[in-house]
Every structure is written in structure tokens, then in C-alpha cells.
Amino acid sequence: MKTILITGCCGFIGSHLCDHFILKKFLVIGLDNLLTGSYNNIEHLESNENFFFYEYDVCSEIKLNQKIDYILHFASTASPLDYLKFPIKTLQIGSIGTENILKLGLKNKSVVLVASTSEIYGDPLEHPQKESYFGNVNPIGPRGVYDEAKRYLEALTTAYSNKKK
Questions:
Q1: Residue 57 CB coordination number (10 Å)
Q2: 12, 71, 77, 109 — which has fewest CB within 10 A?
Q3: DSSP per position, the chain
Q4: pTM for this structure?
Q5: 162 has pLDDT over 60
Q6: CA 61, chain centre distance (Å)
Q7: pLDDT at 163
Q8: pLDDT one-digit tens code per residue, 34-90
Q9: What is the gyration radius of the CA atoms in the chain, in angstroms?
Q10: Residue 10 backbone phi and psi in degrees, to 5
Q11: CA 129 to CA 124: how far, in whole Å?
């Protein structure tokens, strides 16, 4: 049985990913610090023998003693209400949290998927946006902490990916 770690498992997307991978017969480990996610989103899984939930902050070193095959990193304060309320934590999750996930992935030789969005490149000056388009960003605007956290997440993930080669 393959093992998948899902960060942000109590959020909207993370909780649905837990459901999906349970149905696909994976062993699912969910991490969430419950800053913005709700345990109610995964409560129906608590009696499932293939689901393990840990209330845990990805900004702390992640110590798991089992082989992790896949990691889906969805931990984030994604709502404008949340990242404006928790600006420092938003930046820490995108930086420290992502690095902890990538270190765990490297140690386990896991496939790691990080979540991002094209919105972090600002109000686009071209439509549709090509992969070569670098955006129209404002690092100190109202969305700055979220956007910079996600852009850093992307750059850090690329650096770790290149390190594996």
C-alpha cells in the first residue's frame, strides 16, 4: 500500500484529497495546524484504519518514521481574510513549511506536489499567460504576503528539484 502525506488536510481542497486517496486505497497521513482549516472536514475519516491525522504545524521539523511515497503540500492561508490576519504565518508556511516538506520528500525519495496559483503573478498584462510570463506583481500590496510566500515556494521547490538531479 502506498503512503501519501497531505498537508493542509483540514482545508477545502486538502480534505477532498484525503477522501480521494482513501478511496484509491492509499494510506493517508494528514497534517494540519487548524489555523484556518476545520477538523469537521475530515472527521468522517477518523475511524478509517488507513487514515491518520496529526494536528501539526509544517513550520516545525517533520519527523515521521515511515516511508512516504507521495507528498501533497496544500498547507496555506489561502483566503484574503486569513493571510491578512496572519501575515507572518503565511510567509512562514510558504518558506519554512515548504522547506520542511521538501527535506522530508528528499529523505524519503517522495514525489512532492506543491500547490500554487497563477494569481500570485498579479494583474496580468497579457492574456492568456504563457509560462514565460513573469507577472505584474506588487510585493508590498495587500496580497503581498500570500503572493511572495507562493512565489518563494515555487522557487524553493525548483531549487530542491534541481538538487535531486
A1: 19
A2: 109
A3: --EEEEETTTSHHHHHHHHHHHHTT-EEEEEE--SS--GGGTGGGTT-TTEEEEE--TTSPP---S---EEEE-----SHHHHHHSHHHHHHIIIIIHHHHHHHHHHHT-EEEE---GGGGBS-SSSSPPTT---B--TTSTTHHHHHHHHHHHHHHHHHHHHH-
A4: 0.93
A5: yes
A6: 15
A7: 77
A8: 999 999 999 999 999 999 999 999 999 999 999 999 999 999 999 999 999 999 999
A9: 16
A10: -100, 5
A11: 7
Which pairs count as long-range contacts for 145-148, CB under 8 Å and 24+ apart, including other chains? 145/83, 145/84, 145/87, 145/88, 145/90, 145/91, 146/76, 146/77, 146/78, 146/80, 146/83, 146/90, 146/120, 147/119, 147/120, 147/121, 147/122, 148/91, 148/94
Catalytic residues: 146
Q: Model confidence over 102-127: pLDDT tens digits?
A: 999 999 999 999 999 888 888 888 88
For residue 92, the model assigns a pLDDT of: 98
